[in-house]
Amino acid sequence: MSHAHSTLAGVTLASHGRDVPALESAFDSDNPHIRVIALSGLHKCAALTPRHIALALTDPERAVRHRLAGIGAHDARVDLLHLLADGDYAVAETAAWALGERERVTDAEMQALIASATGHAEPLVRESCVAALGSLGDERGLPAILHACSDKPAVRRRAIISLAPFDSPETTAALRNALSDRDWQVRQAAEDLLAAAGISDSHGDVGEP
User: Are 6 and 28 in the same domain?
Assistant: First the structure.
């Protein structure tokens, strides 16, 4: 790699200038921050190759894998199933978000989202998986979303919002139950969804302020 593109400033200029050869060279840098910028630049230039994706997928630096997960929302070649299982929760969280941005997911990806929504140790990952399941609107994900309605407050909030695409007695019951949640944002989200669906609120606004 030339010295000009071995610096953060150099690779940033290469990215802005859509200098693909320079970005190709920068991608092989020993500096992970340079690799991240090069990866983003190659994506912007529609110049990502299977080699770039494979190397980024197993890059020892979490920032590179994290950036690849974000790219995966728009590039089906990125193995988001692998990244969802990443040991770094920020990578896994972004992989879940990216799956929710795709028009469709595989059965294996759907099952992984469901499993992580209910069983991942990190609440942020569970929340992101619940959001993805709501975005996808697949009935297979509904039980996991309903389960998340009894999770930590941030996950519960996301779960209530993620019920929007679904119409079932279980969904209505979960929304009514959420009207008495301790968290006011959960209560508000449930009230808004019930109102949007034309369902009367018979519980009132009870719970802690």
Answer: yes
Are 153 and 208 within one domain? yes
Average model confidence (pLDDT) for the chain?
Answer: 93
pLDDT in tens, 67-122: 999 999 999 999 999 999 999 999 999 999 999 999 999 999 999 999 999 999 99
Give the residue numbers spanning the domain of 134: 85-209
Residues 64 and 98 in one domain: no
- Regarding whether 70 and 27 lie in a shared domain, the answer is yes
- 185: which 2 tokens? 């944002």
Q: What does the pLDDT look like over 11-50, one tens digit per residue?
A: 999 999 999 999 999 999 999 999 999 999 999 999 999 9
61 and 108 belong to one structural domain: no
Instruction: Please state the domain count of the chain.
Output: 2
